[in-house]
Structure formats: structure tokens, C-alpha cells
Design goal:
Helices cover about 20% and strands about 25% of the residues. By secondary structure, the protein is an alpha+beta fold. A hairpin with a 2-residue loop joins β2 and β3.
């Protein structure tokens, strides 16, 4: 339920986050700051920053979100297992499924399903993210690795940070990509205007590496095989949008609206912490994406 408060003239000069902490009981300033940064607070109908100074007389609307649970609860829902050994499980995440709990997604996540199917998972990431070494965006389907033990989690995390894992995606992008292959190294940063997305159009940000190869060209689309050397938030989506070829269906980055975005984590190669062997796991292209390809041929 939204909360509406009006600041007083006597409160002019105070910070927005301090003001809300005094007016809304039961929540910490850190929680209130998170709401503001997530766009859950408006001042006279406009977005604001936690440090905004009040003038008095502003109408402030707050849309609180429930605190997440202290630990992930088990939920009986299906999981497609692609590979498993004593240290790791590889699952096929469907599009539309959130990986772990967060603002607006306290249940119905992949983690809730994992807790039901596997009684013991790594706790390195905390009780809300058991087993989660890396993640995929909600709209992205495909293969994900889940650590069974803390030791396996650390070993896999070291492989990701050391860039010895190989992650390959399949993406349909808008327009005809001229080059048969390419390499994008633009840094990735939070978009200063649209806070829900990332951008590769700034000079600063976290280093990122995306390589692509054309699989097939269509009249208005290009089908790509994409490999990433880093795992930045929305990396593929931001990088491909930066070269003016947004992922098909990705409205957030300039693509046309569709039922889902055409981005699929197809293959991952890693070293099993249990056996030391190099493992390759592939997730088949979902039927809805196969049908999409068939419709544009």
C-alpha cells in the first residue's frame, strides 16, 4: 500500500531519506534509501535522490516493498537438470523465472525450486542464494551452474573470476550485422538516466568483453553466437545495443516488444571441482525461440 506524506516548511533543508526515516516508522534508513534508488519514492510526482534537500510543502509518495525472507523456502516446482556430479548441478533455466529473491520477487524463484529438490547446497552466497555462483536475467533462458558445496562454490567462482569458464549464448538481433565476427570491449556502467538498465556509451564503467559470430542473416535480423569473457549485468544486451543491433524483443534496450527477448545461454564449459575434468553442458534452444526463427525464414 502506497504511503503519502507532505513535508512541512519547518522541515525545509533536511535530506529526503532522513525525513522519511522520521515519518515512516519500522524501517531503517538503508531500507528507505534502497526504495528511493529503486524508484519507489517520488517527490511531487518526480524521481528523487536520497540526498535531495526538501524545501517544505512537497508531496512525497512511497511504495514500500516487503522485506525479503531470512532464508529461501522450498517450493515444489520442476527443474530440468542437464548435468550433475558430486560438486555441481547444471540446470536449464526457463525464460521468465527469477534466479533468487529480491525486491518484488520473494518467492517463485529458481532458488526456491533448488532448495526443494536438493537438500544441501553451498551457503557461500548466504541463505537467500544457496548454490548460486552466477545468474541469468529473468528474461534469459539457458544453462546455469549451481554449487553443491562451499568448496565447489569457491572453485567455480575462481574459474569465473579467472575467466577460464566459456559461456556461449545464442541471440537474434535486429538489423543485418555486416561483419562476420566482432569483439566489443566497451565498459559497462549503470545508465545515469534510466536506472533499470546498463549502458556501454560512457567512458567509465567495469571492463567487459563480448565476442560474436554470425550464424545466419535474415532480411531484418541476424542470428549470432555470442561468447562473453566477463559477466557484467545485462552485458550482452548493452553491448549489442551499443553497436545498434539490440536483441530482438528487448524493449529495454531499443528492441521491438515481444513475448520474450531472444537471448539463450546455450553452452558452458568449466572444470568440475569434483573430478577435475573439463565439462561441456548445452541447453537446447527453447521451442518458442525455434518457432521464432522458423517464422522469419
Amino acid at each position: 500500500m502506497a504511503i503519502s506524506v507532505i513535508s512541512l516548511v519547518a522541515e525545509a533543508g533536511g535530506r529526503l531519506d532522513h525525513f522519511l526515516q522520521t515519518r515512516i516508522s519500522g524501517y531503517s534508513r538503508a531500507r528507505i534509501q534502497a526504495w528511493i534508488k529503486d524508484g519507489r519514492v517520488s517527490v511531487n510526482g518526480a524521481a528523487a535522490k536520497p540526498s535531495m534537500l526538501l524545501r517544505g510543502g512537497e508531496t512525497i509518495e512511497v511504495s514500500p516493498v516487503d522485506l525479503p525472507p531470512l532464508k529461501a523456502e522450498a517450493e515444489d516446482a520442476p527443474i530440468e537438470i542437464l548435468y550433475e556430479d558430486a560438486s555441481v548441478i547444471a540446470v536449464n533455466k526457463p525464460a521468465g523465472l527469477v534466479v533468487h529473491a529480491g525486491a518484488g520477487a520473494l518467492s517463485g524463484t529458481l532458488v526456491n525450486r533448488l532448495v526443494h529438490h536438493f537438500k544441501s547446497l553451498s551457503q557461500v552466497g548466504g541463505e537467500l542464494r544457496p548454490g548460486i555462483v552466477h545468474r541469468l536475467d529473468k528474461g534469459t533462458s539457458g544453462v546455469m551452474l549451481v554449487a553443491r558445496t562451499d568448496a565447489a562454490h569457491r572453485a567455480l567462482a575462481e574459474q569465473f573470476s579467472g575467466r577460464t569458464t566459456e559461456k556461449t549464448y545464442l541471440a537474434l538481433v535486429e538489423g543485418r550485422v555486416n561483419a562476420d565476427s566482432g569483439r566489443i570491449t566497451k565498459p559497462i556502467a549503470r545508465d545515469p538516466v534510466h536506472r533499470t538498465r546498463m549502458t556501454a556509451r560512457l567512458e567509465h564503467g567495469r571492463d567487459a568483453l563480448t565476442e560474436y559470430r554470425v550464424v545466419r542473416r535474415f532480411e531484418k535480423f541476424t542470428y549470432l553466437e555470442v561468447r562473453i569473457g566477463t559477466g557484467r549485468t545485462h552485458q550482452i544486451r548493452a553491448h549489442l545495443a551499443n553497436i545498434r543491433h539490440p536483441v530482438a524483443g528487448d524493449k529495454l534496450y531499443g528492441g521491438q516488444l515481444a513475448d520474450r527477448i531472444f537471448l539463450h545461454a546455450w553452452r558452458i564449459r568449466f572444470e568440475s571441482p569434483a573430478t577435475g575434468e573439463r565439462v561441456t553442458v548445452e541447453a537446447p534452444l527453447p521451442k518458442e525461440l525455434e518457432q521464432w526463427l522458423g517464422a522469419i525464414i
